[in-house]
Amino acid sequence: MMVDSVMTSRMAWTLGGASVRGASHVRRGQPNQDAIGWVPPAATQATEGFVAAISDGHGGAAYYRSEVGSRLAVEVAKATLGRYLEAPDPSDDAAAIVAEVLVSWRQAVAEDLARHPVDSEWVESEQEKLLPYGATLAAVAVRPDRLIVLQIGDGDILFGYPDGRVDRPLPNDEGLVGEQTYSLCLDNAAQRFRAHVRRRLDGQPWPDFVMLSTDGVSKSFADEKTFLSIGRDYRTSVRKMGLRSVLDKLDKWLGDVSQRGSGDDVTLCLAIGSPAQAPADTAPAVEYAPETSV
What we know:
Elements (H helix, E strand, L loop, with lengths): L1 E6 L3 E10 L2 H6 L5 E6 L10 E7 L9 H21 L7 H22 L10 H5 L6 E6 L3 E7 L3 E5 L5 E2 L21 H4 L1 E6 L9 E5 L1 H4 L5 H18 L1 H5 L2 H11 L5 E10 L19
Helix pairs in contact: 2-3
């Protein structure tokens, strides 16, 4: 369990999360191929906000360095979107931000390959070099004045609002069958990203809750309706208990979800916003028993 708090001019954000090795990976002796990270901003108005990112390495024989690929994806997202937080007037060009993330990830992979060469004569093309590092990425950066959300591949991003509504800020992927997913390692990865920049406008709803999770979580529940209800439950629980109390139990809950559900690695990141004059994480702790049915 990890937790950090950051203040914005309009909202105090508390965020944290956990990543748990999947039950099936434990049985097979495989590593956790998920990664998670976030960036609390510097204490200046221009950088007020946060970045949260998760990534899921594909696993499988062809993706034998995917746990490295996912870690690099999170590091790149933190660095790129961290600069977005710091910019006095950041670009609203989501495609340009996606391109920067993708170029940086490919460069990070190239640097890792230089340090740890692959002993194989068939690795020649750019995609052949990237393939072992294949991973998804989902990331959110929130400033007081705007936010950006971007994603390639599976996994889930949910936004919650003061009226209790929880929804997806991005459309679902199209053109996939079964367990297929898009990946950072694809030649056309830039076209497979879904990304959106939203400016904060007076009178329009603004999220006070963000949840990111790898697909090992959503696959552990029966359907979309049940999964969205988990998002609403988390928003309610964090509001009542304080985020730290929820995070104290998150490792166990995620372990139970993987054991009883998908068996996959499971990663969850939560961010909750409160008015800046109100402490964001001081509610008294109460007993928490999250839903784990699948």
